[in-house]
Input
Amino acid sequence: MKILFLNGPNLNLLGTREPDKYGTENLNDIEIYVKSIAKDMNVEVQFYQSNIEGELVDKIQDAKNKFDAIVMNPAAYTHTSVAIRDAILAVEVPTVEIHLSNIHKREEFRKISLTAPACIGQITGFGKESYKLGLIAVVDYLNKK
Ligand code: DQA
Output
């Protein structure tokens, strides 16, 4: 089983970026954490981060026939990107949306996700554990398919 973890804009700054909201661990720390859990589950995980919407769309398109599923933190594009939503719908690769912070507890504009309706479900507010829970959720989904 191969799972692609996609990370949107500014997540390359995790660790120093608003640590009260996003924690003190950087994306590489989270990647190591997720990969150690994935190894125990016999699952192969690949991480990718981009600040560019089109690059994320390309990665989603490219995931078809290469990955069994996607776990995605679209970051700010969650609230704006019709292109990412359409890409998820187009490729039909099962996708789980994740967020470090609880987007429903924050500003009004963050409560709206354009991407979540294209996904199996959304996990939000558990810090780096959202990444672990995203992995568990998507593997469970694939096993039951
Ligand atoms: C985020 C929440 C988004 O609203 C924000 O733009 C991010 C991070 C999260 O993981 O909590 O960049 O996706």
